[in-house]
């Protein structure tokens, strides 16, 4: 049995059908990258997994237990085991780096302050930002902010890490740093990772497996080698950077029509 299973999952927003019938397995210890055009539902998938959005049909199981039917009271325990690095890192600018990283720990666990201090220091070390506890997020670069976001996610020592477009908006050097960090974090903490990205270079570097979403379904999945050699036209177009087939005006604007 896979660690995470989406079965027949349906998700709609009013008339818009994001998922018609989503099937996806995520295996313990793997690094799975989700690719697909803008607006195809990649972030929605991650949010359903941690209960920020609810599925309209089907089942989602985590570690053998169904989670899609859980109430708001039960999700904090799940979010303790599934950490998320949100798009843009989502730091609180009015709080120091220390308080940002400690935030998740305080929310999820009752720990004495000296243990929080240790866990924050270790998480910042793990992301290559030792000693930055007193800095304010506004004084950090985009790459450093992402790393603080990652420190916050790993401080709770999750079993699964979700990354929503971790390299978007970063220059090539910081992109490379984040890619390496994703690979190292997986090894160091033995976590299962799910990464949503538009960046195929990153996908090739960090993935054990890649799954492509298109119009409500997983249309393809395979290893990095499979992706490089596939003759599936949707995957090939995506790898080559061709605009996705879409009827969504926002997406057309984003991809320049
Ligand atoms: N809370 C919401 N309310 C209404 N519609 C939503 C909501 N969240 C997402 N959507 C819609 O669901 C669709 C999928 O969104 P999602 O953010 O998952 O796309 P994505 O594949 O992650 O795209 P991108 O790569 O641009 O981030 C989009 O059409 C989006 O407008």
Automatic annotation (TrEMBL):
<dbReference type="InterPro" id="IPR027417">
    <property type="entry name" value="P-loop_NTPase"/>
</dbReference>
<protein>
    <submittedName>
        <fullName>Methionine ABC transporter ATP-binding protein</fullName>
    </submittedName>
</protein>
<dbReference type="Pfam" id="PF00005">
    <property type="entry name" value="ABC_tran"/>
</dbReference>
<dbReference type="GO" id="GO:0005524">
    <property type="term" value="F:ATP binding"/>
</dbReference>
<dbReference type="InterPro" id="IPR017871">
    <property type="entry name" value="ABC_transporter-like_CS"/>
</dbReference>
<keyword id="KW-0813">Transport</keyword>
<dbReference type="InterPro" id="IPR003593">
    <property type="entry name" value="AAA+_ATPase"/>
</dbReference>
<keyword id="KW-0067">ATP-binding</keyword>
<feature type="domain" description="ABC transporter">
    <location>
        <begin position="4"/>
        <end position="240"/>
    </location>
</feature>
<dbReference type="GO" id="GO:0016887">
    <property type="term" value="F:ATP hydrolysis activity"/>
</dbReference>
<dbReference type="InterPro" id="IPR003439">
    <property type="entry name" value="ABC_transporter-like_ATP-bd"/>
</dbReference>
<keyword id="KW-0547">Nucleotide-binding</keyword>
């Amino acid at each position: 049995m896979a660690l995470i299973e989406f079965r027949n999952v349906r998700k709609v927003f009013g008339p818009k059908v994001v998922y018609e019938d989503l099937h996806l397995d995520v295996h313990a210890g793997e690094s799975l990258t989700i690719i697909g055009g803008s607006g195809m539902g990649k972030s929605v998938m991650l949010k359903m997994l941690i209960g920020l959005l609810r599925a309209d049909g089907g089942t989602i199981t985590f570690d053998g237990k169904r989670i899609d039917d859980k109430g708001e009271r039960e999700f904090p325990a799940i979010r303790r085991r599934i950490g998320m690095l949100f798009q843009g890192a989502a730091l609180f600018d009015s709080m120091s780096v220390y308080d940002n990283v400690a935030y998740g720990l305080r929310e999820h666990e009752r720990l004495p302050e000296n243990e929080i201090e240790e866990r924050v220091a270790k998480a910042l070390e793990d992301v290559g930002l030792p000693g930055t506890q007193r800095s304010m997020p506004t004084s950090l670069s985009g790459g450093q902010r992402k790393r603080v976001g990652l420190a916050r996610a790993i401080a709770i020592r999750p079993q699964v890490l979700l990354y929503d477009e971790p390299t978007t908006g970063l220059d090539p050097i910081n992109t490379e740093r984040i890619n390496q960090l994703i690979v190292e974090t997986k090894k160091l903490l033995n976590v299962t990772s799910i990464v949503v990205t538009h960046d195929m270079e990153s996908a090739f570097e960090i993935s054990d497996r890649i799954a492509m979403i298109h119009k409500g379904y997983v249309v393809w999945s395979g290893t990095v080698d499979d992706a490089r050699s596939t003759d599936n036209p949707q995957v090939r177009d995506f790898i080559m950077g061709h605009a996705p087939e879409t009827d969504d005006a926002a997406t057309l604007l984003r991809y320049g029509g």
